[in-house]
């Protein structure tokens, strides 16, 4: 089946979250196997895995809201607001919210007419939808790389 550009972007968003991409690495595998206390552990002056997870997933949530027709109401500083994580259940609840937002966003992308990808993303100064969506996927890959490296550092024997 031939995918249009909107469907292809949805596929990429799903793959970085759930697997199947050509990097053979995804957020769900790396984050689901991590316990809550390790997710909060800091190595030197690096952000914790939990902070990077919340930060990178923030933009998926913002995209979802825009695709739902809500106004763009975001600020970069909000992306680092880590919710209180005091247990494994808190960590798992956070991850479930992230997986749900990713899937809902991908579903909305699949339904987006391809022509809309080239419209302004709310305002001209933000570029078009395509630029923002591909940027979010690239941003997720960037932080996944950091997460993988930090995970190796905190789990080394």
Can you describe what's shown?
This protein has 157 residues and is mainly alpha-helical. It has a single domain (5-155), classed as Four Helix Bundle (Hemerythrin (Met), subunit A) (Up-down Bundle), CATH 1.20.120.450. Helices cover 61% and strands 0% of the residues. Helix 1 (5-18) packs antiparallel against helix 5 and helix 4 (49-67) packs parallel to helix 5. It starts with a helix and ends with a helix.
CATH architecture: Up-down Bundle
- The shape, in one word, is globular
- The low-confidence parts are none
Mean pLDDT across residues: 96
Tell me the span between the first and last alpha carbons: 46 Å
CATH level 3 topology? Four Helix Bundle (Hemerythrin (Met), subunit A)
What is the structural class? mainly alpha
CATH superfamily: dinb family like domain
Quantity of strands, as a count: 0
- Number of helix segments? 6
Helix content: 55-70%
- SSE order, as H and E? HHHHHH
Q: For the report, how would you describe the main beta sheet? A: none
Domain count: the total is 1
Radius of gyration: 16 Å
CATH level-1 class? Mainly Alpha
Strand content: under 5%
């Amino acid at each position: 089946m031939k995918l249009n550009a909107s469907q292809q972007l949805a596929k990429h968003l799903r793959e970085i979250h759930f697997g199947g991409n050509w990097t053979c690495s995804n957020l769900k595998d790396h984050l689901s196997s991590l316990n809550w206390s390790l997710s909060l552990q800091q190595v030197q002056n690096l952000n914790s895995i939990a902070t990077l997870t919340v930060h990178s997933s923030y933009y998926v949530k913002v995209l979802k809201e825009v695709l739902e027709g809500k106004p763009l109401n975001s600020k970069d500083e909000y992306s680092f607001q880590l919710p209180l994580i005091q247990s494994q259940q808190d960590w798992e609840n956070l991850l479930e919210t992230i997986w749900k937002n990713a899937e809902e966003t991908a579903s909305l992308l699949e339904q987006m007419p391809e022509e809309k990808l080239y419209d302004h993303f709310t305002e001209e100064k933000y570029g078009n939808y395509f630029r923002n969506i591909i940027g979010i996927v690239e941003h997720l890959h960037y932080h996944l790389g950091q997460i993988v490296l930090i995970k190796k550092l905190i789990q080394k024997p």
